[in-house]
Design goal:
The complex is a heterodimer of chains A (315) and B (118).
Chain A (H helix, E strand, L loop, with lengths): L4 H13 L5 E9 L3 E8 L2 E8 L7 H13 L7 E6 L5 E6 L7 H6 L7 H16 L14 H12 L4 H13 L7 E3 L8 E4 L2 E5 L6 E3 L2 H8 L17 H10 L7 H27 L6 H6 L3 H12 L4
Antiparallel strand pairs in A: 1-2, 2-3, 3-5, 4-5, 6-9, 7-8
Helix pairs in contact in A: 4-8, 5-9, 6-9, 6-11, 7-9, 9-11
Chain B lengths: L12 H16 L5 H38 L4 H9 L7 H19 L8
Classes of the chains: A alpha+beta (315), B mainly alpha (118).
Chain lengths: 315, 118
């Protein structure tokens, strides 16, 4: 049980919100500079608190709106009990706690998930179809982000030369497919952000990167090599492209052009390379000193290798 | 008698790093768990990377300078800018070959097992 001042403040707030429920077992699961996830029990019911300090550039209430809309639309998400902003600027969500595993390597290997594994790719396809069928009006505040422009901006801000990433950027611009339809995109749909049980996918979490865009972005991102976590199969290291596309279409998703998903997979790999550079820069700038972050800078070349192979049609 | 780069005594920088990496592999990693063990593994990997860079770096630097010279640019900053400006549009095959060589050199230091031999 968290007994710090923060913990006491949060306990009191949660009890008031939840009709005077007794708050127990409050503890922090993870936290960054501006966001934290806490777990607790309210009258014995396991719940999750996500909170965001004032000043974060993302608005947690927009994210809460997407979670609410996704739940109403039948996508597997934790039930949203409350979301609001306090007078001191802190925004938060209270969500149902879903039991299950999020660690990719365990989902891919542990005997506990043996029955779940063969059906997970189909579960992912069906969940994506539900998400992409949502009416963008149901989640106000989402913006359309041009991914090539946005990540070019980040690359330029880093100020380091990356010739391979420039070559790929040209390719992305030259071969960009027309967008079928703009819809709600999860934005980080991959193992790590899925709660998986022995029976399959239970919930899609971490909606903070949700935005409007071509729904094919989510399918491509799920297939990026980094998200295979060492597995050989293209979709999350668990299954084949065809399984994903068939399940997605069968659940009412858009008709899939594999070439378009491939473009998004290349974009995702390029984007991940830039994210690796950013992670190393977090160490180099002194924001968070860590040899783990430093080492990620030297993983950029793995992405560059995959990207050159893709440009030659060899993946 | 073996000549060492003065003024330092043996071991060399690479041998010192190797000794620490061996200690991590032999004593630290087997006796730790969880995040500490993971971070000890990352540390051993990082040291391996530095050992390979000490060994391969000078040759790679020379090869890289030759590649840049061949492409007609002074450094990677100029190369990146020229690619973005479309200046290599008519030398695509040549450019890709040069970039592939650079990437393979980087992988030879960062993670030699990443490239499949087939």
């Amino acid at each position: 049980m968290e007994t710090s001042a923060v913990g006491t403040d949060l306990s009191m707030m949660l009890s008031q919100l939840l009709d005077g429920a007794a708050i127990h077992e409050l503890h922090r699961l993870s936290g960054g500079a501006s966001r934290e996830t806490w777990r607790f029990e309210a009258d014995g019911r396991p719940l999750i608190l996500q909170r965001q300090r004032a000043g974060d550039d993302r608005d947690m209430l927009i994210e809460a709106g997407v979670v609410r809309a996704a739940g109403a639309g039948g996508a597997p998400v934790p039930a949203l009990l409350d979301a609001r902003r306090r007078d001191d600027g802190m925004a938060f969500m209270v969500l149902e706690a879903i039991e299950g595993e999020t660690i990719a390597r365990k989902i891919q290997r542990d005997p506990e998930f043996e029955r779940a594994r063969p059906r997970l790719v189909a579960d992912f396809g069906a969940a994506l179809a539900k998400i992409h069928a949502l009416d963008p009006e149901a989640a106000p505040g989402l913006v359309e982000t041009d991914q090539v422009l946005y990540y070019t901006g980040l690359l330029d801000d880093l100020g380091q030369p990356h010739p391979v990433l420039e070559l790929v950027r040209n390719w992305l611009i030259e071969t960009r497919p027309p967008s079928a339809r703009s819809g709600i995109v999860h934005g980080d749909f991959r193992l790590g952000n899925m709660i998986v049980g022995s029976d399959g996918l239970r919930a899609v979490i971490d909606w903070e990167l949700a935005h409007l865009g071509d729904p094919m972005e989510d399918l491509g991102w799920l297939c990026v090599k980094a998200w295979r976590f060492g597995g050989a199969a293209p979709v999350a290291g668990l299954g084949e492209y065809e399984q994903l596309f068939e399940a997605y279409e069968a659940a009412g998703g858009l008709s899939v052009d594999p070439a378009v998903v491939h473009w998004w997979e290349v974009l995702g790999t390029w984007k991940w390379a830039i994210m690796c550079i950013i992670q190393a820069s977090v160490h180099l700038s002194g924001a968070a000193r860590s040899h783990e972050l430093a080492a990620i800078g030297r993983r950029v070349c793995e992405n560059e290798y995959d990207l050159l192979m893709a440009l030659e049609g060899r993946w | 008698m073996v000549a060492v780069a003065g003024p330092h005594d043996a071991p060399t920088a690479a041998e010192l790093i190797e000794s620490v990496r061996e200690w991590l592999d032999r004593d630290v990693i087997p006796s730790t768990e969880g995040r500490l063990r993971f971070h000890a593994r990352v540390a051993a990997n990082v040291l391996g990377m530095v050992e390979r860079e000490i060994e391969l770096g000078p040759g790679q630097e020379l090869a890289h300078r030759k590649r840049l010279e061949h492409l007609g640019v002074a450094d990677d900053v100029e190369l990146a800018a020229a690619i973005r400006a479309g200046e290599f549009a008519d030398r695509a095959v040549e450019l890709r070959a040069a970039l592939a060589e650079s990437v393979l050199d980087k992988l030879a230091v960062a993670n030699p097992s990443y490239v499949n031999p087939d």
